[in-house]
């Protein structure tokens, strides 16, 4: 029990508890990751580093390019620096990527204690550690594979070591401070600069004494920091060919700091100071009322603590810690990403901030929890003096205990209530993702190739983060986009083929589930390939209008008086012909060299209302033959859903709707 009274032991227990909590949240709340698809980028990069690779070489670049990867000839590389990915890779070596999240969060909490202890005292450091653990922004962002909390770990390592070296004169910790901020710079350069600026100002101010020992110590810190800068530039040189050209600049040259025209992937805005002011005011308000521990109570505690520190004479070290509030808030105003994370400023539920908080401002938690702890301790001491002065000596202890319990209940309840909302919101997203990914867990996909749709553009892992390729594109399951499909299949000739499709719009953050299907795909080849397509016709239907389309050419037919369509597509190198019951005239279109023949069957209820069956047949001409894949099938009740969000999923349709298609070689 005596050991438990030591602040270092108490802080250590809080840090371990935090690591376990984050590890648990990562597994339970984020098993399929978040609505921020950057997680897949970092995990893909981590897998590359474990294989000793800075680049990947896909067999068909157009079909295998992951989200936020830069294409450089035949090779691809991520736009992010490798430090966060390397940290996640360590977790994989220890048993799983999420182990790294637990270790990183434990480190952040431990270093919060050491930083606040150096700036104030050990007791305040313990309270700050508890407040950090209770902050929703820390809990949520520490539980996901993004770079913000890992960079905070290195920033805190710098702050703790710098303050310790400043107090003790230790050259070893001075070197550690420099190396820590250097690694933070390698991870997120601008973030590190914003965090370090108040401490750099403190260091420069302290040099006015012309103390040779201090100058030497600060020089060691500077050298350590510059080592990280040198590593960053060396990495740039290897990856982009220029030390001063960062990978993210290659990916999107207009996605940088400053006001004016900004653009990434075809999305652009004119970023103005007024827009920045509106966005960052909103983000800071969200941080101070929703994402810091206990919301407004935590912010009030920080304000009380800052006021108490000023009243009793804030020193330069404490001022440097407080300065992080200023540099981070002002510095992020110069980056247009703060606007993008909000989405529509008029909609509080829009944008990534609704689920992950103002993550660009995560370093502000360090001074907020530090001064929040000062405020809590100040109020506790004031309360103790008040009770001691007004209550008899024999009743002081029970009264103080009662007040402490009430305060803990109030603060703890507010903290739990504040944290529960983002946890609940993210878990609701996970439930939608669970349903979407269900087909992957229901089928043995060893030695298989899965063709994925592209609802958010031509990228892998955007949005499908849970299904990623090995760095060598040779895992038990390989995932590819549905581009240049025949080249992809040629690269994997001995595998089982599937096509992942879904019905509905992929917006899990709105609570809208999709109905998924993993459709087996076969390849047929011959001088002629036959595709049989069948579909039921509801008895209320008056007729079925059929359109066959390819290469911009269309041909038509109409079928009446049937409760079922049984049609055949015969495809050779020249034409694709449609035959079947009820089709008397010749219906045909040109066979594309490498493209799609689409069969559209509009079931008309006689009033112009109805729905469409669609069968999209991928076709490729070879020297003397033709190849085709099993068609992608859709049932379209809304034309806006056709082409990717209207998949036919057996067993989920009503009104007697059913559909099937098979493809085979008609001759050899």
TrEMBL record:
A Pfam family (short name) is DUF7846
Q: Which UniProt keywords apply?
A: Cell membrane, Glycosyltransferase, Membrane, Transferase, Transmembrane, Transmembrane helix
Q: What do the Gene Ontology cellular component annotations say?
A: plasma membrane
| Ranges for domain DUF7846 | 449-615
Which domain of life does the protein's organism represent? Archaea
Q: Which residues cross the membrane?
A: 12-30, 95-113, 125-149, 189-207, 219-238, 291-310, 319-339, 359-379, 399-419
Q: Which residues form a coiled coil?
A: none
Where is it chiefly localized? membrane
What's the protein's topology in the membrane?
Multi-pass membrane protein
What are the subcellular locations of this protein?
A: Cell membrane
Q: Which InterPro entries match?
A: DUF7846, LipidA_mod_glycosyltrf_83
What is any one GO biological process for this UniProt entry?
lipid biosynthetic process
**Protein name, entry field:** DUF7846 domain-containing protein
- Species of the source: Haloarcula amylolytica JCM 13557
């Amino acid at each position: 029990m005596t050991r438990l009274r030591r602040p270092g032991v108490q802080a250590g227990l809080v840090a371990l508890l935090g690591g376990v909590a984050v590890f648990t949240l990562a597994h339970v709340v984020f098993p399929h990751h978040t609505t921020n698809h950057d997680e897949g980028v970092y995990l893909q990069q981590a897998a590359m580093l474990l294989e000793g690779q800075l680049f990947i070489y896909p067999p068909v670049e157009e079909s295998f390019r992951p989200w936020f990867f830069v294409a450089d000839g035949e090779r691809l590389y991520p736009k992010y620096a490798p430090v966060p990915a390397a940290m996640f890779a360590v977790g994989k070596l220890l048993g799983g990527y999420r182990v790294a999240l637990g270790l990183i969060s434990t480190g952040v909490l431990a270093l919060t204690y050491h930083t606040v202890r150096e700036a104030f005292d050990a007791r305040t450091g313990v309270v700050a550690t508890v407040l950090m653990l209770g902050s929703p922004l820390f809990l949520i962002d520490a539980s996901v594979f993004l770079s913000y909390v890992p960079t905070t770990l290195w920033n805190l390592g710098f702050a703790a070591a710098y303050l310790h070296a400043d107090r003790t004169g230790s050259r070893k910790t001075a070197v550690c401070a420099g190396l820590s901020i250097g690694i933070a710079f390698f991870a997120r350069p601008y973030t590190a600069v914003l965090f370090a600026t108040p401490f750099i100002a403190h260091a420069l101010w302290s040099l006015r004494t012309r103390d040779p020992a201090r100058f030497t110590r600060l020089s060691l810190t500077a050298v350590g920091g510059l080592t990280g800068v040198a590593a960053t530039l060396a990495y740039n040189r290897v990856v982009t060919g220029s030390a001063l050209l960062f990978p993210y600049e290659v990916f999107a040259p207009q996605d940088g700091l400053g006001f004016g025209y900004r653009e990434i992937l075809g999305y652009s805005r004119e970023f103005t100071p007024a827009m920045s002011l509106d966005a960052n005011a909103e983000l800071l308000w969200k941080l101070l009322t929703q994402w810091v521990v206990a919301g407004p109570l935590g912010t009030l505690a920080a304000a009380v603590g800052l006021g108490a520190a000023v009243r009793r004479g804030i020193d330069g070290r404490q001022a440097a810690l407080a300065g992080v509030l200023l540099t981070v808030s002002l510095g992020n105003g110069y980056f247009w990403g703060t606007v993008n994370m909000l989405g529509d400023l008029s909609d509080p539920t829009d944008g990534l901030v609704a689920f992950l908080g103002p993550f660009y401002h995560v370093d502000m938690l360090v001074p907020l929890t530090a001064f929040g702890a000062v405020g809590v301790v100040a109020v506790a001491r004031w309360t103790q003096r008040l009770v001691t002065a007004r209550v008899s000596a024999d009743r002081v202890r029970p009264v103080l205990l009662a007040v402490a319990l009430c305060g803990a209940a109030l603060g703890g309840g507010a903290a739990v209530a504040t944290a529960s909302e983002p946890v609940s919101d993210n878990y609701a997203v996970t439930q939608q993702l669970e349903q979407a990914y269900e087909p992957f867990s229901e089928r043995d996909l060893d030695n298989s190739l899965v063709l994925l749709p592209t609802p958010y553009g031509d990228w892998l892992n955007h949005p499908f983060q849970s299904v990623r390729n090995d760095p060598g594109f040779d895992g038990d399951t390989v995932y590819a986009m549905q581009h240049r499909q025949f080249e992809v299949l040629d690269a994997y000739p001995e595998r089982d083929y599937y096509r992942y499709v879904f019905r509905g719009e992929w917006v899990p953050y709105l609570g809208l589930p999709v109905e998924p299907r993993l459709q087996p795909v076969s390849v047929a080849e011959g001088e002629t390939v036959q595709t049989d397509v069948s579909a039921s016709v509801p008895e209320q239907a008056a007729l079925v209008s059929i359109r066959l389309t390819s290469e911009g050419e269309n041909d038509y037919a109409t079928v009446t008086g049937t409760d079922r369509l049984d049609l055949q597509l015969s495809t050779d190198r020249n034409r694709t012909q449609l035959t079947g019951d009820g089709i008397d005239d010749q219906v045909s279109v040109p066979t594309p060299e490498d493209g799609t023949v689409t069969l559209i069957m509009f079931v008309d209820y006689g009033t112009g209302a109805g729905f469409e069956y669609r069968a999209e047949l991928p076709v490729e001409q070879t020297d003397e033959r033709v190849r085709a894949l099993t068609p992608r099938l859709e049932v379209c009740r809304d034309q806006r859903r056709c082409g990717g969000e209207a998949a036919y999923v057996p067993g989920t349709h009503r009104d007697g709707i059913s559909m099937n298609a098979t493809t085979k070689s008609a001759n050899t």
